[in-house]
Each structure stands twice: as structure tokens, then as C-alpha cells.
Amino acid sequence: MANPLRPAILAASRSPRVKSAITHAPGTRSLVTRFVAGESRADALAATRALLDSGRSVSLDHLGEDTTDITQAKVVVAEYRSLLGDLGALAEAGEAGARRLEVSVKLSALGQALPRDGDKIALDHARELCEAAQSAGVWVSVDAEDHTTTDSTLSIVSALRADFPWVGAVLQAYLRRTESDCRDLAGPDSRIRLCKGAYRESASVAFQSTAEVDDSYRRCLTILFGGDGYPMVASHDPAMIDAAGAEARRTGRGPDRYEHQMLFGIRDVEQQRLADAGTRMRVYVPYGAQWYGYFMRRLAERPANLTFFLRSLATR
Ligand code: FAD
């Protein structure tokens, strides 16, 4: 999309040799810390407190994806349960008002891709987390991954919503199917995070040009703001932020009936400006040791990030 090298970077990132080279490159750590709150839960909670103090809300993501064995999936569940315990304590101590705290989960980290009963395992694990989140007074949203998982993910979200109607879904405007998914999911109280999409997808399933993705994003905003749900506008793009404001005015939605979302470390000044202006602003805060996939998607999004990274290697 905005970065012409994006497909090549995302393809190369799947190679174990590239992974090893990037993970061990001397300049990597300093750039990773720009996008990731830290490796430990304590790091994530420190970032959370600072964001809450600044008037922003948070969604915490324990980094990890593509879990290939059940033991690892259970480790992920245990970490989220501990995180939810800590967030519940924050809420109880009065440090965060209702629903200013959320966790984001990737179903592939919970076992969705396991060869036997992956969908069921991911659903059971997600249900366990939703129960813990409900007791802690914390929201859950289910991240969107590559398009081969979309049907499974949306059906798991729908099953979760039967018991936990506040569970959020994520839709990616670059997918050709998303306008129709927005129509299906814009019902009462439905929390939908709309993002552009961060994976490498072919033209058969996804719009390829910036203009097409942006047009799709605008059409999806119109559907979501015109519906009865709670739109979550996940974009750093000033044009999409303006479009959301225009939709809010057109549909008469007050600032408590939608929110903006951005990623930790990206457009921090704009995040604060929106929060100070009385708009709900939630920051997606990733933490953990498995930062590679997330980091590569951020590098791929923006040529300047890649240039900065390559320059930092060259100057060592
Ligand atoms: P762009 O046109 O890509 O960027 C607009 C401007 O934002 C850029 O000009 C630049 O100023 C700034 N910017 C954007 N990206 C970067 C960056 N990496 N580094 C520095 N500046 C940058 N994608 C998924 O596929 N699944 C998900 O579940 C998902 N969840 C997300 C949750 C949140 C809260 C957010 C904000 C994004 C999420 N994404 C997810 C990523 C999203 O799909 C995009 O890849 C990403 O947000 C960049 O798109 P953009 O709308 O910001 O617009």
C-alpha cells in the first residue's frame, strides 16, 4: 500500500534466515522499543498507567501468533489471565474507569491453527479469557489476521458474543469482503474495530492500491457509523480520522458513541490531541518477547521505518 516494498518485506519476513538476521542485528532493539512497550508484563503495565494518566484508554496485546502446539497456547492463556488479574486490580484501585482497559487477542496464538480441532481449542481458550475479563471489568477484542482465518475468526467472535456481547471484532478495509461484513456486524452494541489491514494479501481477495483501500475504508465507516454498533476507528491516517469526524456529525453520534484507536509509539502527539479534544482515544499496547511478526508489519507499513532501520545497521 503506502510502501511499494511492503509485499516484498512481508514475504521476506517469513524466511527463517531473515528472521534470524533481523532478530540478531545490532540496530533492531532500539527500533523495536519504539513500537513495543517492553518484554515483560511490568513494562506493559507501566506504559498503561502513563497512557491512562494522559487521558487515553488502552488495549493490551501479549505478542505472539501462529502457535503450533497446545502447550504454547496454554502458556499464552496463562499470561493473559495474569494480565487480566493485574488490569482488574488497576480498575479496582480506581486507576481506570469502566472499559478504559481492554485486551486484544490473536486467535492464532490461542491455538486456531492447530491441525486437530484448532477452531474449538481457540474458542474454548477465548471463552476462558472472556470470563476472566468479565470479572475484571475489562473488554476483549479479537484481532484480525490473514484472510484465510477470517471466516473462522468471525464465527468464533459470533459464538463468544452469545455470552459476552461486548466482545469486539476487527475488520480490515483492504479485504473485498469487508463492506459486506460491516453490514452484517453493524447491529446493536456491536463493537467493530476498522483498520486498513496489515498482512500480505493477493488481488483476488484484497484491494491493492492505496486509493482503493482508502475508498473501502470510507465506505465501511459510513456503514458502521450509520448502524447501531460502536465503531472503533483504528487508523493513523489524517484523512480517515477526518472522515470519521464527518460521519459522527452526519449521523449525530456524540463522542461517547465511537472511539479512535492508534498503535503504541505511532503519532503520539496526534493521539494526545484527540484525547484532549474530548474524543475517546485508545492505544494498542503490544508487549512480550515474540515481537518479530508485529515489528515486521510496522517496518513494512512505512518506507521511513525501513530506511531508519537500515541506516542504524550501516552506522554500527
Ligand atoms: P496508513 O496510510 O498506513 O498510515 C497513515 C499515517 O500513519 C502514515 O503516513 C504515518 O504517518 C502513520 N503510520 C502508519 N503506520 C506507521 C508505522 N508503522 N510507523 C510509523 N508511522 C506510521 N491490522 C490487522 O491486519 N489486524 C488487526 O487486528 C489490526 N489491529 C490494529 C489495531 C489498531 C489499534 C491499529 C491502529 C491498527 C491495527 N492494525 C491491524 C494495523 C492496520 O491494519 C494498519 O496496518 C496500520 O494501522 C497502518 O494503517 P493506517 O490506517 O494507520 O494508514
UniProtKB/TrEMBL annotation:
Q: In which pathway does it act?
A: Amino-acid degradation; L-proline degradation into L-glutamate; L-glutamate from L-proline: step 1/2
- Where are its TM segments located? none
Catalysed reaction, written as an equation: L-proline + a quinone = (S)-1-pyrroline-5-carboxylate + a quinol + H(+)
Cofactor or coenzyme needed: FAD
Supply the alphabetized keyword list.
Answer: FAD, Flavoprotein, Nucleotide-binding, Oxidoreductase, Proline metabolism
Proline dehydrogenase domain: which residues?
A: 46-308
EC id:
1.5.5.2
Q: Which PANTHER family match?
A: PROLINE DEHYDROGENASE 1, MITOCHONDRIAL, PROLINE OXIDASE
Q: What is this protein called?
A: proline dehydrogenase
